[in-house]
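user: Please review this fold.
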Amino acid sequence: LLFGTVLVLKFKNYDLWKTILFIQVLFTFWCFIIAVPQLGSGYNDLRQALSVDIASLEFIFPVFVLDKISDNRNYFNKKIDVFIIILFLVRILLCLSRTTIIGALVGCLIYYYFLDNRKKNVKLFKRVVFITFFILFAVYTILTLVPDNVIEPFVSKFSNIFSEMSTKETFASYSDALANWRGYENNAAIIQWNNYDLFSKLFGNGFGGLIKMKYISSLWSGMNFYDKGAIPFLHNGFFTILCIEGIIGLIIFIRIFVKNIIYAIRVRKYYGIYNETAKYIMLFVLMILNTYVTRGLFASEMYLSWGIIIGVCNYEIKLKMNKLKNQNLNLNHQRV
């Protein structure tokens, strides 16, 4: 967070989205390079190679696509930008990550909704419809090419997406827990938090604390905490925070996102800054969704980049809010 704030202070014209895009382009090219040797090893190895830092594509893909179709913005040049969009789309679809696919679609919808209404013309609508049908066609093509033994579990996960996270299921055995693992983790976190004393309920058991689990996935085997019957973090980042930072820490964490969304909406309303605030709103909404389903800030590949991104956005929004307050104060003085 501090480093992100320093970036804005040091470089007045710093463009966060160009930085994210440039890093993702490098990562995407690197992923395709390391994926080539995996072509003969089976689809799962190919998918694993293309999944490196895939979560960041949820943020940059909607911005990159809608900047192109609403403002005709060129980050590199027209042909290279189109090539990169196709490359990003292929990577997202080949990874078959539910979070990334849903996140990218939700991001596009949010960004489009908060765009300047003057730019939502017939031409833009046609472009959005074309892109949507192109993505659907690409999804259909990928589904016909990917082996059935990969597609069937993927479709099954999509159909069970809500029941998988439910804490109301009965977890009487390891197989029950494994079938709805996210729900089981959340249920274990609630039980642990309910057993805390008042101080721990408010402030948690600290970052060194573990979350006790009756059943632990074999994926954790080999870790030094595996034999202790506990794990350090869950898929749901909010339940992780509830256990390690308590209800106070959870409120502070949620406030970071909600406050910035509210500030961005205010800046959009009073300043008429549409595209930039649309990016902020989309970013923080996707961060909330990502934290709920795939650890968010607690993912090893996320904590540094997210911290910097939140720091940059938080400070830029505050600058705009302070400018708005100063303008209101000046107007009040003039009236007096």
